[in-house]
Amino acid sequence: MIDLKKYNTIIFDCDGVILNSNFQKIEAYRNTAIKYGASKIQAEELVSYHVSLTGISRIVKFKYFLKEIMGEDITDSSMKKLVDNLNFEVINLLKDCEVASGIEKLKSKTKKSTWMVASGGDQEELRFLFKSKDIDSFFEGGIYGSPSSKHQIVEEKLKDKNFLPTLFLGDSLYDIQTAQKYNLDFIFVYGWTDLHDWKKICNQNSLIYIEKIQDLL
Predict the structure, then answer these.
(1) Are 175 and 55 contacting, i.e. CB atoms less than 8 angstroms apart?
(2) Which of 107, 153, 201, 217: CA 20 to 30 A from 85?
(3) pTM for the full model?
């Protein structure tokens, strides 16, 4: 297994890694589309697009939803309505979702590493959820999300000379691509992922994979 003590920074994705929330997020997107006025078929199109782009900002997904699925112009008011509704749905559905076991013990095991979150979820929503679940204090390196992309988050952190070496724990194709783009070590966490062919992708890229965070203990 990988030597955790060598890393200055450990990046965690949120959905599917820290929180068992991928499938609640799917339901949140479905509900948001229906509330907006989409048919069930159109709502499922958004869900499929969301799953195909797990880890990508909701802004990208809603622009596609309006233009390609609903056939509407992308307006500030439409985007705000969708984002606000999704925020409501996510907070409601995720308030009782499971938090990964072993976080506190892993924090003790990696005292010299700075922990941070890089997620496709809304940044303020993430910070609210982490605080409500009393896990925000573990991530002294910051809790980051949309509107910044994971690429932008990592690029900003790379300005800090103490950022590297870094380990990224994720569960999506975009997480893998981000780690590869910036030459970060990566572990795929598959227990709660919604990436159907994750094992094939991990083997093709010679990636280490674990079921859950507690497997690192």
Answers:
(1) yes
(2) 153
(3) 0.92
